[in-house]
Structure to design on (463 residues):
């Protein structure tokens, strides 16, 4: 069953149309990667899906329920979507553990004890248990991103969104996080991941959605998009990325 | 009468100086925080009130406002006791300045963190209470200490409404002993001592809530 089905989604900023009718679906337990040039609307798309940005038109079916409707409980929708950002966005005044427990206590109404237990479980899953008492400033980039993932997973979301989770990391940390995402994929976590990182798409071998100028140009396996695609825009994009890698 | 004795006599006013200063600081903190929250939440219909307040109370001299409260309001049938008139003048002025300090600190928060909090599904007020206020207050410490010091330095105006604080004790003593230089020197020393207490107090609170790698230093 489709967890998420997006039909003709549009978004304008002023007289600029940033999303020009996006259609795709994401099955339960599946992972898809979204790639495309800077400014093509990838972040806008993710943020429309959890209504951090209000879409102008189209439908978003979340487990068959249209969540673009005015009477949708937006905060409940957001609780079901874990969001991981490029710059980690950890709360700097809270420890790693407190970052994870905040939503458990305030949204799920868990006692401190239960929240701590659940948070420790998620931190252990991300190999971050020993760093639980540290503040964000005391963690490396890769460690911060792992706490951010633990924080998102703790709410037992139906799906995890990533917006360029490795872009702010050096290559080694980036590989660590990619490996983690891959592990989550094998654990059956549903994920939607915006990235510029070809190695992420390759390693996780998820279906790649290629976006350009507010439209989906192609959706295919990474290898088929990466080499000699018939669409010149796609060849150009991945050709340039290959260049930057070398 | 030696210098030690003068100090001792003036020190009797120190309690009142501290009381006036603390009362005005607390008034300022309460009102300043209230204003900061109203602004942050953009509470409908409060913008003009908040902007008028911060604009006017930063422009009017402390003494003029104090006289309006203490001498002006009774003429309208409202009797205002001395301490309350200090809180309504110096305290509210401090509130207007503190509101600006808080606004500056709010502007220094990381928009990404707030977006992450929204993306989690936290209600707006919860984001304010759990994330914005705890971070903002830590960032505002230097500006707050600055404003607290200003309040202390304006506290001698309490003398004009009959509160027996340090400066009032000093003038009384000076008029009977004609040893103005030593007396006012002693008063200055006492203010300096209270300033140090204030600083140490704020530093202690700051230390207590310090977070490695976050703001302040
Ligand atoms: N709030 C906004 N107001 C106006 N224009 C916006 C706003 N947010 C994004 N845009 C514009 O919409 C377009 C798409 O932005 P978006 O951030 O979705 O791109 P992106 O694909 O995520 O790019 P990148 O790879 O650089 O992150 C850009 O041209 C951007 O300037
Ligand atoms: Mg983006």
């Amino acid at each position: 069953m489709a967890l998420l089905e997006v039909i003709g989604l549009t978004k304008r900023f002023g007289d600029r149309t940033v999303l020009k009718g996006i259609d795709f679906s994401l099955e339960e337990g599946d992972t898809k990667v979204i790639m495309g040039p800077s400014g093509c609307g990838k972040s806008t798309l993710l943020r429309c899906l959890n209504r951090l940005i209000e879409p102008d038109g189209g439908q978003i079916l979340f487990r068959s329920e249209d969540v673009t409707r005015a009477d949708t409980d937006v905060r409940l929708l957001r609780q079901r979507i874990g969001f991981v950002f490029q710059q980690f966005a950890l709360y700097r005044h809270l420890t790693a553990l407190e970052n994870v427990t905040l939503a458990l206590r305030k949204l799920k109404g868990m006692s401190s004890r239960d929240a701590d237990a659940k948070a420790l479980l998620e931190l252990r899953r991300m190999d971050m248990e020993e760093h639980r008492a540290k503040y964000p400033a005391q963690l490396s980039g890769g460690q911060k991103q792992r706490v951010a993932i633990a924080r998102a997973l703790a709410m037992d979301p139906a799906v995890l969104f990533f917006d360029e989770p490795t872009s702010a990391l050096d290559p080694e940390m980036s590989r660590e996080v990619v490996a983690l995402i891959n592990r989550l994929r094998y654990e059956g976590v549903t994920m939607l991941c915006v990235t510029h990182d070809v190695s992420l798409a390759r390693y996780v071998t998820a279906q790649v959605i290629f976006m350009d100028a507010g439209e989906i140009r192609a959706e295919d396996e990474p290898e088929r998009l990466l080499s000699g695609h018939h669409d010149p825009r796609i060849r150009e994009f991945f050709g340039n990325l290959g260049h930057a890698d070398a | 009468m030696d210098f030690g004795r003068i100090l001792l006599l003036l020190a009797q006013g120190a309690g009142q100086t501290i009381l006036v200063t603390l009362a005005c600081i607390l008034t300022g903190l309460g009102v300043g925080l209230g204003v900061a929250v109203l602004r942050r939440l953009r509470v409908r219909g409060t913008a003009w009130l908040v902007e008028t307040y911060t604009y006017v109370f930063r422009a009017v001299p402390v003494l003029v406002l104090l006289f309006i409260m203490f001498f002006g309001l009774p003429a309208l049938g409202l009797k205002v006791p001395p301490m309350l008139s200090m809180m309504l003048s110096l305290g509210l002025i401090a509130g207007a300045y503190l509101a600006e300090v808080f606004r500056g600190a709010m502007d220094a928060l990381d928009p990404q963190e707030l977006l992450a909090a929204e993306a989690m599904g936290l209600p707006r007020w919860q984001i304010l209470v759990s994330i914005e206020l705890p971070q903002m207050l830590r960032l505002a410490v230097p500006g707050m200490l600055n404003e607290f010091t200003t309040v202390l330095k304006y506290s001698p105006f309490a003398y004009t409404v009959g509160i027996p604080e340090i400066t009032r004790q000093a003038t009384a003593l000076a008029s009977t002993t004609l040893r103005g230089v030593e007396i006012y020197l002693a008063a200055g020393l006492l203010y300096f001592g209270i300033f140090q207490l204030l600083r140490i107090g704020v530093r202690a609170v700051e230390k207590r809530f310090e977070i490695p790698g976050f703001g302040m230093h």
About this structure: The first strand of chain A starts at residue 2 and ends at 13. Residues A 42-43, 163 surround magnesium ion (ligand 2) (CB under 6 Å).
